[in-house]
Amino acid sequence: MKLSAIVLTRNEEQNIEDCLAALSWADELLVVDSGSTDRTVTLAEKHGARVVTHPFTDFADQRNFAMSQATGDWVLFIDADERVTPELAEEITGILRGLAPLVVYALPRLTYFFGKRLRFSDAREDAPVRFFPRQHVMWTQPVHERIAAHLPLRKLKNSLLHYSTRDLEHYQQKVRDYVPLELRTLIEKGVRPAMWRFLFIPPAKFVQLYFLKLGILDGVPGFQYAILSSYFYTFQKYWLYWRRR
Asked: Angle between the 235-244 and 168-188 helix axes, to the nearest 10 degrees?
């Protein structure tokens, strides 16, 4: 079974070398770049990746395009800020050596926020589906994209390292990138814009992340994650949605 490891990029020169170095065992390294203006493409090619440029519309479209460019029977999607550990690589190659059944696999992630490991809140059950047979899956939803597949789901034992957010500036840039796609998702789902959403959902989100999901046990990083996710990201999403509609 041939495996294509796929990385989507845009201005990821700080991450791409370490990311691809951790994927050197894959049969194919494919980078789909959406117009980087830094050294991302040069560094990716230096590490043996085949680079394809494709304009970005949303994450689902970009991932589906990437699968159309891959040559492997199976694909492994890794973000530039993620790292495959040797243990995870061995588990994946073992599955492929054993004539893998038609199954989609979720990869548990160890998330680092502002350089600190999060063990609770959203990080507690974080396991996105990233490893599967290429011809049997499609991606849907503009942001926080999901797969559509009529295949069983299994969870791998070993974890992926996710260096999610470096600092506040990096977090703000991610919000600027994601919120327009969030608004598209709300429109597509027919969500009615209303003032109560940006007044009441953010504090409810904070209570959920910090208390109900035990983010308080992560100390300062847990508080930072909860407050930014609720009163910055969630508030801005619903406030802008209300203003635009």
From this structure: 50
Q: Do 125 and 134 touch, CB atoms closer than 8 A?
A: no
Distance between CA 70 and CA 138 in Å, rounded?
A: 14
Place of tokens 């689902």: 60
| pLDDT tens string 190-205 | 999 999 999 999 999 9
pLDDT digits (tens, 9 = 90+) for 86-97: 999 999 999 999
Segment (H or E) for 51: strand 50-53
Residue ranges of domains in the chain? 3-164, 168-244
Superfamily grouping for domain 3-164:
Spore Coat Polysaccharide Biosynthesis Protein SpsA; Chain A (3.90.550.10)
8-state DSSP, 97:
H
Distance CA 203, CA 136 (A): 40
C-alpha–C-alpha distance, residues 49 and 69, integer Å:
13
Q: Determine the Cα–Cα distance for residues 151 and 199; give it in Å rounded to an integer.
A: 40
Nearest residue to 31 (alpha-carbon basis) of 22, 48, 39, 18: 48
Q: What does residue 157 show for φ and ψ, rounded to 5 degrees?
A: -85, -40
Indicate the pTM of the whole model.
0.95
3-state secondary structure of 9: strand
